[in-house]
Amino acid sequence: MRIVVAFFAVLIISMPVLAGGSSFAVSETPQAGSAAAPATTEVKVGLGIENLDLTGATDSFQVAPDTKIYAWARVADVAPGSTVTLTFRKGDKDVYHREVTIPSVPFRIHAYKTFRSGDGGEWKAVLTGAESKELGSVAFKVEITK
User: Which architecture, in CATH terms, is 2-144?
Assistant: First the structure.
């Protein structure tokens, strides 16, 4: 019975790659035996995802064309069943966004955008909840190198 419970302890849902070179995935983060630390939502950007965590986290990127940059969030400030949206924003224009219903809390989600020539500049990854309430965000700069 314990083997079955452990098997279902982690849920990973991957959405297909969408036009525009963006993708989205979600995964549950079990907290068995964790201390009673206050739950907060985190948003970060980096160059990859490994073992459900972000790698290469930074707020300034110098990357070649066709490089994927990941937005990662640990959602904790919402009730299970709530819908959140993770968005890549350049200036005041939403370039890519995806909504997901959170099955349990805490919950980790990530999305990526493929940065091409001309995509350099100031960006922001924003996580919003109900009624477009901002739950967290991170600003980052992208420079596309040749």
Answer: Sandwich (2.60)
CA distance 138 to 104: 23
Which residue numbers in the chain have pLDDT < 70?
1-39
**φ, ψ at 7 (rounded to 5°):** -60, -40
- Tell me the whole-structure pTM to 2 decimals: 0.74
pLDDT value for 39: 63
Residues 119 and 125: their CA atoms lie apart, in Å, by 14
Q: Quickly count: other Cβ atoms within 10 Å of residue 4's Cβ.
A: 8
Q: Provide the token pair at 110.
A: 């990530």
The 3-state DSSP class for residue 95 equals: strand
Task: Give the Cα separation of 107 and 30 in Å (integer).
Answer: 8
Burial of 112: CB neighbours in 10 Å, binned 0-12, 13-18, 19+: buried
**CB contact set of 92 (below 8 Å; sequence gap of 6+):** none
Q: Name the residue type at position 96.
A: Y
Measure the CA dihedral 111/45/51/128, to 10°: -50
| Contact (Cβ atoms closer than 8 angstroms) between residue 69 and residue 113 | yes
The two structure tokens encoding residue 16: 């297909």
